[in-house]
Amino acid sequence: EALTMTYNRVYMKKLFKVSFPVGLTLIANLIYSHADSFILTLTRSTIEVGTYGFAYRFFETILVIPTFIMNASFPLLLAAKKQSVSLLLRRYRKLSWFMIVVSTGVAIAVWASAPLLIFIRPDFAVSGNYIRILAWSFPLFFLSSLVMWMLFVFHKRWELCVIYSVSMIGNIGANVYYVPTYGATASAWITIASEALVLMATYFVLWQSLRLGKKRV
Fold it and tell me: What does pTM read for this prediction?
């Protein structure tokens, strides 16, 4: 039987309504993740931009780990919510501890091995300093990934969009203010501060969602 293409206006409208805030969230996340590099390029030396760029590329590669974990765990969270909020909460707690243990192990390993970059190329010694700073943020990023997907379970898409949009604006403002003077070191610490604020804000929304979910049971 030949394949045919159809257009369902009602379904497409529903799909757009669901995906639009998610798309905006991802765009805001992408912008604030790379705003520091752009501002560094405009205000600092080429060498500093290159060394920080190498460190951040290494940092971003590791952040794929929580994404893979949550891609595998999200169906389990959805299934748990359909059964009971209590089951969802238990799985969330287990995943939280798992994320903490894994991210702490990764952070320690990266922090300890960063000086070894000098054996690859002496110019990478400075990158190792930036990597050591960014390594402190791994637990934050791992946990915020979990909380973000938990909010998707509770359909809190617009709340996520607002949080990441505000974080984007704050991140850009902080980079514009501090990077011209303090350079890539400021960028690294601003990355940590931004993710800490995102985690606190998203956790607050999640806490409210879990509390309301328990009351309805």
Answer: 0.90
